Amino acid sequence: MMKDPLASYPGYVLRRAAHAAGAELTMRLEPLGLRQSDVSMLILIEANPGITASALGRMLDIQRANMVPILKRMEDADLIVREAIDGKSMGLEVTRAGLARLADARAVIDQFENELLERVPAEHRHHLLPALNALWR
Amino acid sequence: MMKDPLASYPGYVLRRAAHAAGAELTMRLEPLGLRQSDVSMLILIEANPGITASALGRMLDIQRANMVPILKRMEDADLIVREAIDGKSMGLEVTRAGLARLADARAVIDQFENELLERVPAEHRHHLLPALNALWR
DNA sequence: TATTGTTATACTCTATAACTATA
DNA sequence: TATAGTTATAGAGTATAACAATA
Q1: Which member of A96, A124, A136, B97 has the lowest number of beta carbons within 10 Å of its beta carbon?
Q2: How far apart are CA B124 and CA B132, in angstroms?
Q3: Tens-digit pLDDT profile for residues A52-111
Q4: What CATH class is the domain A7-136?
Q5: Do B47 and A3 touch (CB under 8 A)?
Q6: Architecture per CATH, B7-114
Q7: Chain C nucleotides reached by a protein CB under 7 Å
């Protein structure tokens, strides 16, 4: 058997756990034709109607320039619309069709998040979210 | 202020925490001319001398095909050597220069991992690693 | 002067298929 | 028959620079 000294490094295990979870969620969203970033954006736009692409990108840590093709694809898929706020900014809204897809995605995600937490032994379970939030913010 | 409903999703926070930590470690390793994968490989090769590229890839969840350019770069940088085990397999070893670089990298990583854990409130701290390991394995 | 949206571009990481040679 | 190493290639995600138009 191979030795794995990396298992004791929190940073490494964090990366592996995130990758494993991310790959699984991507697989589960695939039948819906949605990517993780799509769902994140739909959730944030629904919670903040009229948000601009720049502000959305700042929340998700995605560069302005990289938002363009993503939002264009979502607009082409009739998931969101862009409406002029003023001559410079565009406000984002979730379409009716987008809300329906979002409802499906939420069912997938809620199930996924529940399963994720169930894998964590009970004595550690409620420490996960606050610990991770402390690492991120 | 914008609403952020994503903050309550463990999977999302996991991804953000891993990305933030990864970006920071990458920055700290950059002066050493090493990437995270380089250091992971050096650690694993040192712990398992003579390991093959395929076995190393399986441990790190990196495809065989993607190991080729990585190992070639590390060999060109005189961090590792490949020695024939038989007519098919090559055993990997860390060079003397590789060991020196690995020592520098370990100092960076140990400091980084300590700081990472210090950011987690004490009551959650020792739950992080077991919780993450449960998600991954 | 700072910000928004945009185009173009490049680099890294990752995934797949196919091939050769050997165990 | 399964495995190791390799090549080629394509798709994501991400990062930077630059520009026009507007706040």
Answers
A1: A96
A2: 12
A3: 999 999 999 999 999 999 999 999 999 999 999 999 999 999 999 999 999 999 999 999
A4: mainly alpha
A5: yes
A6: Orthogonal Bundle (1.10)
A7: 3-9, 12-18, 21-23
